[in-house]
Amino acid sequence: MSAPVAVYTDVGELDPGPGVAHLESHGFVVRVLDSDDPDHIADKANDATVLLIGYTPVGEALLSRLPLLKLICTQSAGVDTVDLDAAARRGVCVANVPDAASEEVASHALAMGCGLLRGLPFLDRAVRSGTWDGSTERLRRLSASTLGVVGMGRIGRRLAAMAQPLFATVLGHDPLLPVDRWPPGMSPCNLDDLMARSDVVSLHAPLTPSNRGIIGAPQLGLMRAGSMLVNVARGELIDHTALMDALDAGRLGGAALDVFPEEPPTDLRLLQHPRLWLSPHAAYLSDASARDYVMTQAENATSWLTTGTVVHSVVVGE
């Protein structure tokens, strides 16, 4: 019987080498395409049993061209690039990497939120342009400020725990989190109340059909004048037209974005806005997390091969 084939699609900033070695040591034939082009994937992975993806969209059309596929391993906690219903119909398992970078993403969000409240990106620009005057920004005391966390999964809870010693109040919103899993000292808060009470709001929800654009003009309109917004989750959680309008109107004092609806972003209004602080979808990165992402993704595949089950299952195929 021929060896099973595992194919990497796009690998982005991560080195798949340790994952390739792990897969090969368990009997896989491995190919690295470094591409998200569906035609290229369909041609070069038509004999694949396992597909290991970064941000490649995998829908019904691509699945129909991969007749031997049994498992899709994402390289993130999010699985929004995979049509889960189509995978389930075809008996294809889907596995994710839920906890490789919880500390990194929470730290990135905390750094962005604190930096915004202290005016760091804006003061930096002012000094470089010749303005030596810290009073041009409204600088907040963290211990007198409120942080709102939207989405209380692993990362949101990690952020809340890190932020509680620093902030006067940490609010959380997550309609799916059971009451007994809320961090000590916190209780559920509805979204409108959180938006209205927070000095800085940080988004940590997964992208689903029901919460796409969850932060739009009505929610931004509830925020205190001069408050801040951080997004290290998924770009599509925010209506970016409404965000730009809120920044232009002074409703928001600033925003920090690590994720965008289109990556890399090309919208000049967004790229050039003086009240935006941007990073290139890098919140998850560190030397440790980069290896953990690659290895956990590969371990999902080898677990499936040797035991019939994956370590972190999202969809159980036939």
Short structural description:
By secondary structure, the chain is an alpha/beta fold. It has 2 domains: 5-100 and 287-315, 3-Layer(aba) Sandwich (Rossmann fold), CATH 3.40.50; 102-278, NAD(P)-binding Rossmann-like Domain (Rossmann fold, 3-Layer(aba) Sandwich), CATH 3.40.50.
Q: How is the topology of this model organized?
A:
Elements: E1 5-8, H1 17-25, E2 29-32, H2 38-44, E3 50-53, H3 60-63, E4 71-74, H4 84-89, E5 93-95, H5 102-117, H6 120-128, E6 146-150, H7 154-163, E7 169-173, H8 191-197, E8 200-203, H9 217-222, E9 227-231, H10 240-248, E10 252-257, H11 268-271, E11 276-278, H12 287-307, E12 313-315
Parallel strand pairs: 1-2, 1-3, 3-4, 4-5, 6-7, 6-8, 8-9, 9-10, 10-11
Antiparallel strand pairs: 5-12
Helix pairs in contact: 1-12, 5-7
